[in-house]
Specification:
alpha+beta, 2 domains, 39% strand
């Protein structure tokens, strides 16, 4: 059994001279299919498994991983990691959780779908998605549709007495097509959906039709004029703003002093009335987990309440650096040490509809796609390529491309207004949001 294997690794590490140790096992299986231009393109299944062992000698730590679980390979793994720990520099902030920090009561999260869809079912879904996309008038070619399923088993054990395992699954469907031709120009767009349970996925016809409709809507794109105007972010891209905020309150960056929000704890970072929630225990959540990657208890937190930043995202190491307590946000793999990371994160919706949000904008830009990573985590400066639609007289007017939008995230967050259309799609989610006063660089 996996639990016995990890206990054995920890016992061997302690016997070899380690003061403490933890071990992580991850088993994964996946099935994916692709369908393009009415024909199957791939059917793939993969299975993998890795074991990671982390040991502590005083204030030194080392970590190794292996996909080989034979007794000889595991013995070698223990010998190697203990030898490594003897040679690395000391880290005064490393170490396992105390008994009072460990998760005890594990919630039932319903994050594992025991029914694995067959290859035939996935092929059928991919075919239906592409057929629906290609049926949209104006679609001229296809990059194909894909459907997939995956599952993981995670087992974590430590010499502080922690031992827990859980399973999770994910299903997804996507389609990507092109519209137009060489004469009028061509545009590409896509749509996709994912869910813990296959039965919760959007229907493939819906995904395909949305992909086709989006590609056709982008035909005839123009350049926008350079101006300082309101920018509205579609939910496909507004979640990225939330991701930038999560990165800026990551405890590792705060401890290094490399975040543009490093001095904003307890201060307004959004407009009054706005809340951001992080909830690792959301039922069927795409990023739900019963405890964090160090066995520390986690819980629902209001990260930003009434516009005020209430906490950093902390694992044990960053919490010790800041003389605080872990918030249960440690995330890890088998071959790397823990680091802080958000779970199910979302911006609560506002009160206005998208149409109402746009209606009072004489001239503006509705963004549906962003390019590049021009975000400075130290200063908050933001500059990214974008495509979408011009807003004229309070209505969506025509497609635009080859645009750059720029501002500073501190100002953008404070001038952000959410619509009422929040839908949980990605694990990090936001409704349509409006940000006034951004610079739009075009022609």
């Amino acid at each position: 059994m996996a639990e016995e294997l990890l206990r054995g690794l920890i016992d061997k590490a302690l016997a070899a001279g380690a003061d403490a140790a933890d071990a992580l096992l991850v088993d994964q299986a996946s099935l994916s299919v692709a369908w393009r231009l009415g024909k199957p393109e791939k059917v793939e299944r993969s299975e993998s498994g890795d074991v990671g062992l982390r040991v502590f000698l005083g204030k030194r730590q080392a970590m190794v991983s292996s996909s080989d679980r034979s007794p000889s390979a595991l013995d070698e793994l223990v010998e190697r990691v203990v030898a490594m720990a003897r040679t690395v520099p000391e880290d005064p902030f490393c170490g396992l959780a105390g008994a009072d920090q460990l998760a005890r009561d594990m919630p039932a999260l319903d994050i594992f779908d025991a029914v694995e869809p067959s290859p035939d079912v996935l092929v059928d879904w991919a075919a239906r998605a592409e057929d629906s996309a290609r049926a949209v008038s104006g679609v001229t070619n296809s990059e194909g549709a894909e459907a997939g399923w995956s599952s993981s088993r995670v087992v974590l054990a430590a010499s502080n007495g922690f031992l827990h395992s859980y399973r999770m699954s994910r299903s997804q469907i996507s389609a990507s097509v092109l519209a137009g031709d060489a004469g009028q120009g061509m545009e590409r767009d896509y749509d996709y959906a994912q869910a813990v349970y296959f039965s919760d996925l959007r229907q493939p016809e819906d995904v395909g039709h949305a992909a086709g409709r989006r590609a056709v809507r982008r035909l005839g794109g123009r350049k926008a004029r350079t101006a300082k105007l309101p920018v509205v972010f579609d939910p496909r891209v507004s979640a990225g703003l939330l991701g930038h905020l999560a990165g800026a309150i990551n405890g590792a960056g705060i401890a290094r002093g490399t975040s543009f929000l490093k001095d904003r704890l307890g201060q307004p970072v959004l407009a009054r009335g706005l809340n951001i929630i992080d909830d690792p225990h959301r039922p069927r959540g795409l990023r739900s987990k019963p405890c964090d990657g160090e066995g520390v208890a986690n819980r629902r937190r209001v990260i930003v309440e009434d516009g005020v930043l209430t906490t950093w995202l902390l694992d044990l190491r960053s919490a010790r650096q800041l003389s605080l307590q872990s918030t249960g946000h440690a995330s890890r793999g088998t071959g790397s040490p823990p680091s802080p990371s958000a779970t199910n994160l979302w911006l609560e919706p506002g009160l206005v509809t998208v149409a109402e949000m746009i209606s009072d904008i004489p001239q503006g830009f509705y963004v549906t796609e962003l390019f590049g990573m021009g975000v400075n985590g130290l200063t908050g400066d933001y500059s990214r390529g974008a495509a979408g639609f011009w807003i004229d007289g309070g209505e969506i007017a025509y497609p635009v491309n080859e645009v750059t939008i720029a501002g500073n995230l501190k100002d953008m967050f404070l001038n952000l207004t959410p619509a009422n259309d929040l839908t949980f799609r990605y694990g990090v989610d936001a409704p349509t949001v409006r940000v006034d006063g951004l610079t739009i660089a075009g022609s």
